[in-house]
Amino acid sequence: MVIRFIHKLEENIVALLLVAMTLLVFAEVIMRFVFSSGVIWIQEATLYTAAWFVLFGASYGVRIGAHIGVDVVVKLLPEPLRRLAGLLAIALCFVYCGLFLLGSWDYLQLMHMINIEMEDIAIPKWMAMMIMPVGFVLLVIRFAELGWDILTGKKDGFHLADEGKESMHLAEELKSAVSDASNRDTDRGAN
Predict the structure, then answer these.
(1) Which residues contact 104 (CB under 8 A, 6 or more apart)?
(2) What is the number of alpha carbons within 13 Å of residue 95 lying toward its C-beta?
(3) Cα distance between residue 106 and residue 114, in whole Å
(4) Using CA of residue 31, residue 37, residue 43, residue 44, what is the dihedral sign?
(5) With the C-alpha atoms ordered 101, 104, 107, 112, is the resulting torsion angle positive or negative?
(6) 3-class DSSP state for residue 161?
(7) In sequence order, what are the beta bridge partners of 124?
(8) Cystine design at 41: which of 30, 46, 48, 120 (Cβ 3.0–4.6 Å)?
(9) Contact (CB, 8 A) for 156 and 150
(10) Within 13 A of 126's CA, how many CA atoms are on the CB side?
(11) Successive 10-residue mean pLDDT values, the chain, 191 residues
């Protein structure tokens, strides 16, 4: 129940950030090209909204398996070794996230200490950049969930998006559609 609420909250935040970013860019384009003016703070707001979107989206992508990876060799391994490779990859992801968590925390403390504001929006910069540790904590949570699924045997790895397989499927569909169209043309010519 709580997990489902968190998943829905995450999806809604990602959607809200995408809509906000789109509306900000749309408003700026309209202001510049229709009214020959602009709003100074929109560009900075769009930049930070995009950063929030990317870091929330990275966590969401891990959850749904949307990240692209090269796992050709891993797929050739027997199931126990695939699981081991997945756990090793997750351990490396933890190291990566840990380094970024430490770095972002140090950076935010410095921003808080010297109290720098954003250039065009009158809020402290550390508040706008708070997504850095939040995003990497979310990633750690997602990697921990995936690691647990691998340990308990629910999954044997990351199950990344397979663009090659999807491309081949689309190519087969296109080939089939062309063949069907050709057959219809042949049938019409025969009548």
Answers:
(1) 129, 132, 133, 136
(2) 6
(3) 12
(4) negative
(5) negative
(6) strand
(7) 117
(8) 120
(9) yes
(10) 13
(11) 82 93 93 87 92 90 77 78 89 95 94 91 92 92 91 79 64 77 69 59
